[in-house]
Amino acid sequence: MFPSFLSAAVGQLTESTSVALAQSIEQIAIATPLSSEPILTTYVRRGSGGTPLLLIHGFDSSVLEYRRLLPLLAEHNETWAVDLLGFGFTSRPKGIKFRTAEIKTHLYYFWKTLINQPVILVGASMGGAAAIDFTLTYPELVKKLVLIDSAGLVGSSPFIKLMFPPLDYFAAQFLRNPKVRQSIIRAAYKNKSLASIDAQLCAGLHLECPDWHQALIAFTKSGGYTAFRFKKLGEIQQPTLILWGDSDKILGTTDAKRFKRAIPNSKLIWIQDCGHVPHLEQPQIIAQHILEFRSDY
Fold first, then answer.
1. Does domain 8-156+181-206+225-295 match CATH 3.40.50.1820?
2. Less Cβ around it within 10 Å: N or C end of the chain?
3. pLDDT tens-place string over residues 28-53
4. Which run of H or of E encompasses 178?
5. Edge-to-edge, what's the strand order for the sheet holding 266-271?
6. pLDDT digits (tens, 9 = 90+) for 134-146
């Protein structure tokens, strides 16, 4: 059985890992200072033992992004994934500003409510920028950091230029268009056969959540995650693993080396024959690197 807060389209999933992860998504009301009402937050928790792994998804994505990686990690370690404020299946309460500061606050109270011990923080794409931001603000909560084809060294989204009425609405609807989303998904993979119907469903189920487009517009208008300065990245003292697809067509490959230079205690590993989402293209290899990194140092 699937959770009731997922749209009926979840029944069309065919990949076993997609079905299993969707069935395991939970929801909890998280009290935060952002609102007088708790925020219904969706997450997945599997496995036991070790320093908890906390997985952070990318832009306009959800916990389903980790459908292939999370089960592999959870075989050996306590593993969590959470939908950030304004994204995925987490609720989008009226009156909350969907900016990076609010996302970080919500993530902190999720951590405090359910985990409440230092974690190994794993962020992919925009989730990498969110993980960096969280690490810099709460260094005592992050034991190690893993960045997978991470954002954080480029400026704001070009969609910002379109974020005024009525173009903001049309920009959001443009991203909702199935053909547009299919094109984006295909661009993220080197192996185009992986951009399947199942992958498209996983990438789009959350679009049926109430106020999806309003939150997306608000986040983009805020500027999202802008570029971190090299000096700021130099403040990260945690051991950091940088995993990067050697054929990333979304962010390119230059930033992998720049992150390596900027973060003092970091290690860069190239993932061969992968695009922007190596955790979906080569989940076994990514899991192996993360689990080995967990035990290092």
1. yes
2. N
3. 999 999 999 999 999 999 999 999 99
4. helix 178-188
5. 26-30, 39-46, 79-82, 53-56, 119-124, 142-148, 240-245, 266-271
6. 999 999 999 999 9
Which pTM was predicted? 0.95
Gap between the Cα atoms of 192 and 186, Å rounded: 6
Each domain of the chain, given as residue ranges in start order, spans 8-156+181-206+225-295
Cis-peptide, bond into residue 166, ω within 30° of zero: yes
For residue 41, give the nearest of 31, 52, 53, 27 by alpha carbon: 27
CB neighbours of 108 closer than 8 A, spacing ≥ 6? 134, 138, 141
Are 103 and 216 spatial neighbours (Cβ–Cβ below 8 Å)? no
Rounded to the nearest 10°, the torsion over CA 138, 69, 81, 247 is: 60
The per-residue b/e assignment along 142-171, b for 16 or more CB within 10 angstroms, e otherwise, is bbbbbbbbbbbbeeebebbebbeeeebeeb
* The token pair that represents 163 in the structure block: 């974020």
How far apart are alpha carbons 268 and 122 in whole angstroms? Answer: 14
